[in-house]
Structure formats: C-alpha cells, structure tokens
C-alpha cells in the first residue's frame, strides 16, 4: 500500500509542474517517472545492504517511440526514425568519473566496456570492444524494423536501416527474396533534414550514387 501511495505522489508531483500548453503524452511521461522511481529504489536498497560501493549498475532500455505524434511528429509513426533508436545506456560504479559517449556503438560493446571499467581482461569468447577507447566507435549503425503489430514474416518486407552522421537509408526486402533484390524505400539527409521528414527517394533530382558507400 505504501509503495502505491509513493508512486501516485510521484505522478502528482510531475503533473503539477506541467504547463497548460503541454503537447506530449502523459502516459509516456508517467512511465518515465515510474521507472525513475524504481531506479531510486534500486539504489536505496543497495545502500541499505551496504552493497552499492561494490556493485556495477547498468541501466539501459528498449527502443523509444514517437507513436503518439506530438510533439515530435505531426503524423502517426511507428518506424525507424532516429528518435526511436537513441537508446540510453548508463553505467554506475563508485568513484567513476562521469563521461558521455555519443558515437555509434552496439550492444556487443556493453560487456567489454564493463570488464574494462572493472580493470578485468575481457574473455576471448565475447565479441565487441570497450567504448572507453575512443578508437573503438563505429562510423554507422545498422538496425532492423519488422513493422508494427504481429508481423507475417512470409508476406511483409523487413526494413533494414543504416544510418551515419549524414544519411539514413531504409531498405525493404522480403525473406523470399535475394537480399540484393530489395528496394530502397526511404532516404533522409540528416544534416539538412534533422527531423527526417523529406524522403529523398521522392525527389526527381536525387541520385543514389551519393549513398552508394552506405549501401555497400
């Protein structure tokens, strides 16, 4: 009962700070407040047990969403835009200096990074590289989007997406096709079109030659 009261009070506190022109999703924001409360409980529990100083805490998430339109987009989306794939990862250790890494990394890099933080040699049978070495970042990221709802893998195409600091490319191909027989569905220039709204594949002036390096 006390736990539920604490959660309701946290939501009420957040709600009281929202201005009248709020355009986001309360359900989404409430979920963030709830998760934040759970993380606080985790740390408080470790402190009470005198375990926090000897514990590495790793907090990450699934992909995000902009499904409910405002404030990110004016139309309904459920896709591979970059705001859906900026996946946060936090690592806590006692006495570690705060640092932020904004390059491209993969989930395979998490475990080697933790070993590196603990000054323990990473086993040879794990893949990935520690992000503490700035030379280990990637110049691009590849993701896969299966579509909203319960996908019928035999009928609908899979969206393979590659992005770097310049372009985002969505490539559609069915399981029954050879990979090279798919089609480029969408291309966005992320430098001049930061919200990824102008699909260059609809432009008569666009040449795929400029994105050949990513397609390869």
State the gist of this model.
This protein has 216 residues and is of the alpha+beta class.
List its traits:
23% helix; two-stranded antiparallel ribbon; 6 strands
Task: Tell me what you see in this structure.
This protein is an alpha+beta fold and 216 residues long. It is built from 4 helices and 6 strands. A hairpin with a 3-residue loop joins β4 and β5 (167-173).
Fraction of residues in β-strands: 15-25%
Model regions low in confidence, pLDDT < 50 over at least 5 residues: none
Question: Main beta sheet, described?
Answer: 4 strands, antiparallel
Mean pLDDT: 87
Structural class: alpha+beta
Task: Round the Cα radius of gyration to an integer and report it.
Answer: 21 Å
Q: Which overall shape is indicated by the principal axes computed on the Cα atoms?
A: globular
């Amino acid at each position: 009962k006390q736990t539920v009261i604490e959660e309701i009070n946290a939501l009420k506190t957040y709600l009281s700070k929202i201005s009248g022109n709020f355009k986001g999703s309360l359900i989404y924001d409430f979920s963030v407040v709830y998760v934040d409360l759970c993380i606080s409980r985790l740390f408080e529990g470790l402190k009470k047990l005198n375990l926090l100083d000897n514990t590495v805490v790793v907090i990450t998430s699934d992909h995000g969403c902009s499904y409910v339109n405002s404030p990110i987009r004016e139309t309904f989306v459920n896709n591979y835009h970059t705001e859906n794939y900026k996946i946060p990862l936090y690592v806590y250790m006692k006495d570690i200096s705060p640092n932020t890494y904004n390059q491209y990394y993969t989930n395979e890099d998490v475990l080697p990074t933790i070993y590196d933080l603990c000054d323990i040699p990473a086993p040879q049978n794990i893949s990935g590289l520690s992000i503490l070495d700035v030379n280990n970042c990637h110049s691009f990221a590849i993701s896969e989007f299966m579509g909203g709802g319960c996908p019928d893998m035999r009928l609908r195409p899979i969206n393979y997406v590659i992005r770097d600091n310049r372009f985002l490319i969505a490539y559609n191909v069915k399981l029954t096709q050879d990979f090279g027989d798919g089609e480029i569905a969408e291309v966005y220039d992320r430098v001049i079109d930061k919200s990824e709204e102008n699909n260059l594949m609809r432009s008569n002036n666009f040449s795929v030659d400029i994105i050949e390096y990513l397609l390869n």
